[in-house]
Each structure stands twice: as C-alpha cells, then as structure tokens.
C-alpha cells in the first residue's frame, strides 16, 4: 500500500493526536480526506484464526486490510505511529458477547495475547463519491453515517455468525447508478451496494431509527442505497460470545497513513 | 474490432442469409450469441454530417460503431458479405420525418447518395448478462425487448433533437446492481442504465404499453431498469424531418461478424 504524501500525512498525524488527546471524540467520516480509514476488531489470539476465517468467508462485509502481531498494539503497515490503545475516538468493550462499556482509551485493558484486525471502511469511497459530485448525505449533514442491522445473513465460520450491518446513503436513481459504478472500484472498502430501494426487503423497518449512527434525510425522488458495513463483525461477536473483545464505536474509525485509492482496483 | 471465430461466423452468415431470404423476419435478440448487433440509420449524404454530430453529442444513446462510404450498401468493417439493402429483418422508411412504410427489403429504394450509420445495441450486453445468470426477461419470454420514449432530452445537433428511447429489463435490486456493473463495461452498447425504479420519473406512464417492442412481465420484488436505446435516432428523425430516411425496425437489428466483447472496455 502507498503511504500518503507529506501534507496529508501531517493531517492524519494531527488527527490521531487530537483523538489521542481526546480533543476529537466524534465520527471520522469526511476527515483527513484521501486517507484510508479502518474498522477495528481486537480479539484474544485463541479466537483469531476463527475470526480470520469469518473475514475470508465474508470479504464484502469484512475486507481485511491489516492484522497485527499477537500482543502488538502497533500497526506499522498502516501507519508508523499508530497505537491501537489510544487512537480511536471511541472503543466498545464486549465481554462474553455483551457490550459492557464504551471508552475513549483501552491502555489499561491491553493484553499481550490480543490481535488487532483492521477492515476496510466505506468512508474510503466517500471521497471518490464526493469528487463525482455525489457527496454522501452523512457528510453534507455532518452526522455519523446511518447503519442498520439487515436480515442478510453472513457465512458462518466457527462460532462467528450473524446478519450483515449496512450503511445507507440516499441518492436519486441516476446518482445511484453512478455511485454503484464508483463504489464497485473499491472491493476492499465494501465495494458495490448490496441493495437499494425498499428497506423492508432486507429487514429494515424504519430508516429514521438506525441501529448505529444517525438518521439522515431522504429527499423526494431519492432511493436509499445500502452498502455492507464493517460493523458486521460486532453482530458476529455478539453471537460468538468471545470472553473478551474490543471494537471501534461505529463511525469512529482508525485513521491510517495509507491512501484511500489503494483500495481502488480501477 | 475482432472478427468472429469460424463456427460463430457460420452462424452470423446463416442468420443473415435467413433474413435475406425472409426465412427469419423477427427480432434478433438472443440470436448468434456473441456476435455484435447494430442499430441502423440510413440518410442522404447532405444530412450525414448533422447526424454524425448528433451521435457525437449523444454517445450513450447513439454510440457510432460504423459508417458506410457514400452510396455503399456494404459495411466491410463489420462483416464481409453485409448488404444493407437486404440484411435487416424489417426496415422502416421515413419521408419528411413521417414513417410511411415498413418493408423487408430496400433494394429498390437504394440511392447512391445514402450513408449507413451503425450504432451499438444493448443486445451486445445481453449475452454478458445471461452469462452472469441475469438472462433478460425479453430473452426468457422470447419476445422483442420493451422500448419506451422517455422524457430524457438528448442534446440537439442541427435539426436533430428529441427524447431518449429506452429499453427496459426488470431485475431485483441485487441483480440490478450486478447488471449495472456488467453493462458499465459496454459503453459502446449504451453502457450503464439511465434510470431504475419509478417509470413516471422519466415520463413513462404504462410499462404494459411499450412504444416499440413487446411488454414483458415484471415480477414481485423486481424493479424496472432502463437503458438508452438505439431507436433514439428515430425520434430525432421524426423531428428533423429529412426528406428521406431508412432505419431498422426496433429490435430487428443488423447482425455483424464482429465480437460483442469488442464493445467491452474491461
């Protein structure tokens, strides 16, 4: 993967510093434009292989872009100074599959058997959408992207199973066709949408009540478009019930020093 | 462009012979799979430059893939033995923009000032759709594709102007996303759809009453998907009112000896 050029590297560095110092605690969508962001799942090593297999079987929802060494909270392949104990705006802590805590730092929870998984994030194609004049509504309304637990089952692996979490961005049909083309270029950032139109068809009953993130307005003539989301593993963690797991809070991602465009195949 | 391999060349030759002898008079969709088909517009030379410009300004609806020499009814670049006086299952004859006749042969109407324009046709991507398990409904129901005059204006050029004619193929949203990806690969065969969903949004009020071709069934959970169509120039001819013009009858195309896949960019 390609490291950012200096001015953007400065931005990602400063953003991570702001997150580390808790000066920034909100969503990361639309920030450090051009830099790749990642979903995070941290599991004990004895659960790692099973989760790896789950990602392999569900490459659209869970596109792996990085895995740490056991016990290492650095991710040198994704950014030189990344410290996974501090560098997310918000962490979720799961015990036995139950979310027990949300916190700004996990330094005192770190263990030397933990493995960090980094999954591609749809924020990586939001920049490409914006450049095409298709700025996602969550960015123009300055809120967290809308996320919903759909009824689209993932492929189980070991103890991991569950439905796919999806993000939603509204577009007119003409815009949606262009958005499908653009996001198709980013298979490692969830790629093309899974569904458009009637939310009920994929088990979503109220767009105004996302399961994660914020609702956005859907205007007349617009259709909701649904992409797979890297929060999907959190549903699988709820089901697999590993004794210990840490994830990012939805929409509050790891900001890397790598180029968004590295996830584009064309 | 690439010429077909011998077995398929044999098929296109035989199909054109069957058309020439009037043994085949129907639509050409789904026939000689793998061979490129074309929309036809034949105009007097003095109207040719204006029409050329119209095609240039409307590359999605009017993707030019061949132009004859003035007065030449052969198209050596598209097939060695093509004779435009006989090789369409059905011709429309327009005088002063009015369709005055439909006929199986135009030998006795041929003039040495005529220019033949060949435009890419959505049938070229139907094979790719079928191979992806997305057989178009017009093929599975063995009817002519459904065509509608939309309210999507083309860009005028000289005296040529008018709305875009679109073909419609129904798919579920999931299938439609795949179909958008596949047809995006064929920019010279109308490429990605222009619209999906509510037909009224593009001025179509009754899917059961296509302006050209046949209606197809739209099943529960399916959405109509609309692609630009090479019948669009016939609307422009109606408006421009050239004293003389010959076109193919919608759905009854020129079968060439060239490869469909030559229109694919990826």
Give the SSE map.
The structure is a homodimer of 266-residue chains.
Chain A: H1 6-20, E1 35-44, H2 45-57, E2 64-67, E3 91-95, E4 98-103, E5 114-120, H3 123-131, H4 137-140, E6 146-153, E7 163-171, H5 173-184, E8 195-196, E9 223-228, H6 232-240, E10 245-248, E11 254-259
Family (chains A, B): Belongs to the D-glutamate cyclase family.
InterPro entries (chains A, B): D-Glu_cyclase, Putative_hydro-lyase, UPF0317
Keywords (chains A, B): Lyase
- Chain pair forming the biggest interface: A-B, 18 and 18 residues
Uncertain residue segments of chain A:
none
Full CATH superfamily name of the largest domain in chain A = PSTPO5379-like
Q: Give the CATH class of the largest domain in chain A.
A: Alpha Beta
Count of the separate structural domains of chain A = 2
> Major β-sheet of chain A, in short?
7 strands, antiparallel
Q: Tell me what portion of residues of chain A adopts beta-strand conformation.
A: 25-35%
Query: Helix and strand string of chain A, N-terminal first?
Result: HEHEEEEHHEEHEEHEE
The tally of beta strands of chain A, per DSSP, is: 11
- Give Rg of chain A in angstroms: 17 Å
Multimer state: homodimer
CATH architecture of the largest domain in chain A: 3-Layer(aba) Sandwich
The helical percent of chain A reads: 10-25%
Mass-distribution shape of chain A: globular
Mean pLDDT over all positions of chain A = 96
Structural class computed from helices and strand pairing of chain A: alpha+beta
Q: What is the end-to-end distance of chain A? A: 15 Å
